[in-house]
Amino acid sequence: MAEVRKLTFFISSPGDVYEERTLAQRVMDRLQSEFAGRAVLEPVFWEHEPLLATDTFQTQISKPSDSDVMVAILWSRLGTRLPKDFTREDGSRYDSGTEFEFEDAVRGFQETGKPQLLVYRKMAKASVQLDDEDALMDRIEQKKKLDKFINRWFHDTEEGTLKAAFHPFESASEFELVLERHLRKVIQKALPESAGAEAAATAVWKKGSPFRGLQTFDFEHAPIFFGRTKAIGDVLDALRRQATEGRAFVLMLGMSGGGKSSLARAGVMPMLTQPGVIEGVGMWRRAIYRPSDVRGDLFLGLATALLKEHGLRLPDMTPEEMGEVLKQSPTAALALIKTSLAQDATDLAQKGQGGKTPTARLALLVDQMEEIFTQDWVTDKDREKFIECLDKLARSGRVWVVSTFRSDLYPRCTKLPKLVELKEGSGQYDLMPPTATEIGQMVRLPTRAAGLRFEEDPSSNERLDDMLRDAAAARPELLPLLQFTLQELYDRRRDDGTLTLEAYHELGGVEGSLAKRAENVFEELPREVQQALPKVLEKLVHVRSGAQEAIGRRRAHLEDFDNPEQKQLVEAFIEARLFVTELDEDVAAVMVTHEALLWH
Q1: What whole-number distance in Å separates Cα of residue 379 and Cα of residue 372?
Q2: Per residue in 362-387, pLDDT tens?
Q3: Radius of gyration of the chain from Cα atoms?
Q4: Dist. CA 101–CA 86, nearest whole Å
Q5: According to DSSP H, which parts of 35-96 are helical?
Q6: Phi and psi dihedrals of 564, rounded to 5?
Q7: What DSSP line would sit under 114-147, residue for residue?
Q8: What is the pLDDT of residues 455-474, one digit of tens each?
Q9: In 181-313, where do the E strands start and end?
Q10: Could you give the CA distance from residue 269 to residue 226 in angstroms, rounded to a whole number?
Q11: In Å, what is the CA distance from 253 to each residue of 185, 437, 548, 581?
Q12: 349 in helix, strand or coil?
């Protein structure tokens, strides 16, 4: 049996790069899956350790000098000064834990040849709030300390040259790519030759298929949502800039089927609500809302989302009562939100055995906000009052709001001046189609996370993952069909977890997979049931004409399909995952799973 090597990775960073720390954890998880059977990778993150309040951080976590690799991530802060009992041999004190960890790693390498020290420095400008003088002065002082540290260890001021290497990066996505490439090389060099070139990946995702078909990636799917690190970072940066301007709101625009909802739900929201990713925010409540969630009342729908499990703790409020408050007085609703968040912060401080009370915030996602225009029951007055409510929340300093909106319906936004004003500055993010590299990540990384693999044609050296990537990269509108095809391949996988070329060709490739699936389901139905399709689509599809024609989905209650043939067709399409069901005011409702079905 080949030797399995254990490697320890110490992750060091101040509190201004939590986003990069989270990405470092994801990189480590991916590499552990990739090198399963050959290496055991043990990352050390101080936030994962059971630290006691009776001692300092540094005395309770292992030292960098005991690890094989230390990854240091720096940006605009050096960190908090260590207690006076932490001193160098000459009696001088450390300006921060980061400085102590770095010098311990250097000393360890000089004495034992480990750890290997990799330093990454974020070069993007840090945003600051000018209305908080104490925080501003602290940031300036921290930046001075960091510059002094960098100059001491990395620059020869007399020669004007670098005396040690570090890796600059501008964005979180760049950091993720570079870190994974570097760590993979470090691991490969550390492995004995007898370890072999490749072993079967172990599954870190054990909840079934890592693909979503035509359904949206949601919050719980963050571990298998890949390929959009740059967009996630861009949206978070836009939110930070908007917050410094007093309006924490970003409208994400993109074509239908471009992945806006998945990006917001499985990418932006999980990262945003990680404590520390937004500097100074120690805890988050979250709510995800679609205007069509509760038919007939935008505010009741919003209130219902706000009061769900991960939302506000207002046990004495019913959704109906909260909805009325939101509608009649957003200011009063904001007071309730502030009270709930303050209680959360107090409770968290008590659980942490005292210390400074953390800052708590609410993250609100209004997904598919174009529905305030496409739902027949939403009036002009409803829309205006709803945007006024969002405006009040986003300008409160307590609520961070992200919304998604179909670009083909964007001209309707101009009818709401307050919405246009709210997204001024950095408040509009245009989601571009993913690059070929990003599509490759969407294809390969979830597959690897689930312990699956793609087949390769030995005669042509064609790999199935390359074929999927190239097909989707050539035509961005095929992006939703990519997930559908991957799901179909998953359903047809071999017992050993291989996704096969044979299944791909049977499906007709990415473009043909959905049409063939829908056509097969349709053709298997009796003729009298097939004839019910136009009546079914009348209830599930809206077509609006104006400056430009728009087509989209809408919900219908299952009970609306009272004709037996219509009901049989709907149930067949639900079984085939071409239609999806959900609750609407405690009544079962149905809708087309994705608009791509209407086009292909």
Answers
A1: 8
A2: 999 999 999 998 888 999 999 999 99
A3: 27
A4: 12
A5: 57-60
A6: -55, -40
A7: --EEEEEEE-SPPP--TT-HHHHHHHHHHHHHHH
A8: 998 888 889 999 999 988 88
A9: 249-254, 281-289
A10: 14
A11: 38, 22, 17, 26
A12: helix
Token pair belonging to 583 = 């609750």
* Residue that has been written with the tokens 């597959």 in this structure: 447
What one-letter code names the amino acid at 379? Answer: T
Q: State the pTM of this model.
A: 0.81
Q: How far is CA 272 from CA 424, 444, 586, in A?
A: 21, 25, 31
List residues bridging with 371 in a β-sheet: none
The residue with tokens 């246009």 is 420
- Please report where in the chains the tokens 């936030």 appear, as a residue: 47
- Other CB atoms within 10 A of residue 30 CB: 21
Helix, strand, coil distribution of the chain in percent, nearest 5? 50, 15, 35
- Domains of the chain (ranges, CATH numbers): 5-195 (3.40.50), 228-430 (3.40.50.300), 525-600 (1.10.10)
SS3 569: helix
Q: Which two tokens stand for residue 472?
A: 């989707």
In this structure, are residues 47 and 198 in contact, taking their beta carbons and an 8 Å threshold? no
| Tokens 């004190």 belong to residue | 93
pLDDT of residue 160: 61
Token couple for 229: 């690190």
Tell me which residue of 148, 155, 134, 365 sits closest to 260, measured CA to CA: 365
Q: Are 482 and 510 in contact (CB under 8 A)?
A: yes
Residue 195 has pLDDT above 60, yes or no: no
Taking only the tens place, the pLDDT of each residue in 534-563 is: 999 888 887 766 544 567 777 888 788 878
Name every residue whose Cβ is closer than 8 Å to that of residue 192 and which is 6 or more positions away in sequence: 2, 3, 5
Give the CA distances from residue 173 to residues 19, 69, 230, 236, 316, in Å, rounded to whole numbers and listed in that order: 10, 22, 5, 12, 43
pLDDT for position 120:
96
Q: How many CB atoms lie within 10 A of CB 351?
A: 8
Sequence-distant (≥ 6) Cβ neighbours of residue 379 within 8 angstroms:
none
